[in-house]
Structures are given as structure tokens and as C-alpha cells.
């Protein structure tokens, strides 16, 4: 498959962290630290209550805002849910299928597919998380799990939408553990995902889809992932809560983008 330039994306998933003041400070610090790193798209994904304020704070920067999940329903009597259309004025991205949602909140492949359809219907970009658990990896089932998770959303995506998907490969055993995958293992899975998209939606979509790696990424280890051919950035948890660490990851993405341009 020929390589086409894809804009790298580094997205920070703040999970259920930050007070209001901390969120504003962190966003301002990251905006300042990322000035000049224009080859990389940067997305901050705070808890729901801070989304509107962050969108305002970041309005004059190149940084965009995302959400950590959304409802599978369009609107109605669903107490506590947040609908995709409510996020759309403020968010470019919505994470869907994060392993914490799958394992702690019982989100099935079917729920993930329904949410993904809502996100696309409201012109936002899903960051679809896929990844195997440790026992699945040890049983040699990694690619089978990834394929099942991709198959589950296939009917929610039409070929014209596939090109703008973002898929984050996040091995569950690497999330928040300080034990990242090796860059070559992550590349192997990223290549599999790209080929799956190309087979299902055509070569153009395969080349256009952005594939992120997520799982204990830091400013120190990021560059090895970004230099891999099929890895277009990172979904970052813990390290996104520290402006210097997070900007270090964005800098590594910028340097890798330059290096890939020269190949
Ligand atoms: C995540 O939660 O998506 C994640 C990758 O977390 P961490 O970077 O902390 O492993």
C-alpha cells in the first residue's frame, strides 16, 4: 500500500481528573507549549463539565477539544446522558469504545457501534479504541480481537466516512500500567487495521484513516511509535495531565512528521 501524508494527531484523554481551575491552567499551559508545532493536530479531551470553557480558552489556538464518550441515543428521557448533538458545537472528536468504558461500564460492541453512528451523524470524528486484554494477547488472539471490534462498527460507517476515522490501538494491558507495547508490535497491529480498512472501504480510505497508539505513552518513548510507518499519533492518558510531558509528546510527533516527509 502506498504511503500518503496524514496529519498526526496527539489527543490527551484527561479521564475523570482536574478541577475547573486545573483544567483551565493545563489547557493554557499546553496551548503555550505547543505554539509552532503546526504539523501536529492536538486535541484535549477533558471531563464533560469543562468542555465549553476549554473550547473558549482554546478558541484562538490551533488546539481542538473532544469528549470522552457520548450517548448511544439521539435525545430524550435518558437521565445523566450527554447526546452527540450537544457536543457537536464544541468538539471535533469523541472517544468511543475506550477499554475503561467497555470493562467498567459494560459497553458492548453493539453499544460502541451505535455511539459511533451518532458521532458521525453529527459531523464529529470518532476516536475508536480497539485493543486486546492480556489473556487474549497471551493466547495469540490479538488480531482476532481487533478484527471483531472493527467488524462490529463496520455497518455504522459508510465508505465516504471511513477515510476520516481515527482508530486508536490501545492494548488494555498497556493502559495506565507504565508498560507500553513495543513500537514494532504496535506497528504490526496498526498495519493490520489499515489493511482491514482498505479491504473493507477501499485503498483511499485505508491510506486516509489515522491510526494512533495508546498505552503508557510518555515524552521519552513517544518518538519510537511515531516513526513507525502506520502510526499517526497517540492517545495519551496519564502523561496528558502534565503540560511539559504532553508537549514533549507533541514535539516528538512533529519531529517524526518532518522525518517521514523526508523519506
Ligand atoms: C488511555 O487511557 O487511553 C491511555 C492510553 O492511558 P495511559 O496513557 O495513561 O496509558
Describe what is shown at a glance.
The chain has 263 residues and is an alpha/beta fold. The protein has twelve helices and eight strands.
Jot down its keywords.
263 residues; alpha/beta; 14% strand; binds phosphoenolpyruvate
Please characterize this protein's 3D structure:
- 44% of the residues lie in helices and 14% in strands.
- It has 263 residues and is α/β, with parallel strands linked by helices.
- It has one domain (9-236): Aldolase class I (TIM Barrel).
- The radius of gyration is 17 Å and the shape is globular.
- The chain starts with 8 loop residues before the first strand and ends with a helix.
- The relative contact order is 0.16.
- Phosphoenolpyruvate binds next to β8.
- Residues 13, 170, 175-176, 214-217, 235-239 line the site of phosphoenolpyruvate.
